[in-house]
PiggyBac transposable element-derived protein domain-containing protein
Amino acid sequence: MGGSVVVDLLCKLPAKCYNVYFDNLFTSLPLIETLKEIGMHGTGTVRQNRLQACPLAPATEVKKKDRGFSESVIDTSSGLLICCWNYNSVVTLVSSLFGVLPKSTARRWSRKLNKEVQVPVPLLVSKYNQNMGGTDRMDENISYYRPSIRINKWWWPMFIAQIQYRLHNAWKIYRLSAAYKQDPLDDLAFTRRIARALLISNRQQRIITGPGRFQPIKSRIPEDVRFDGRNHFLYSGNTHAYIVGRKQ
């Protein structure tokens, strides 16, 4: 089904030789062969159960190798190259255009050596990382902070995914703004700030009678709420309490 989606979308493009990149949801050896027959090239990560008995070492053995180790085979009938690469986990890629050489290097931190090391990177891995920086990276970032709430409603994953996509896109725009240089926030901190601002701006009026009333307003209310133009104000209700809220 994934291969059919890719072929159907590419058939609507003008006649031209394209280099297509996709993740393991769509990648399969028949798909790459089909693209090659119609004059296109494909590169993508592939799942272990779609290798069709490819004579590569098992992932459990590759995982025991040094970081940066790679092994590859070429299908002489179709010209496809399949490569497994040991990084944080074993990654398997297939390509009809790129090979393993020339290899590049990437600087990564080694916990074992407690220092940065140079990790060899095959060519098809470098090309894949270079051209899959959009949706693939977004899915990776979202997976780090995916809500763990489980529910039997079928629409829940679709609903929460739409919120996460918008939060991630907003964070990417924030990183391009001048505000990021003054107050750089990572994805998690940015999401927390939005959640806190929404909770404070939509809460009901309440009386603050504890020690919190003596704290500076900047430490209690984020600037996203203070300067949102919704007529917030502070006024005294009596000598012992302060009421914070929106003007009715």
About this structure: The chain has ten helices and ten strands. Residues 156-176 form the longest helix (21 residues). The longest strand covers residues 104-110.
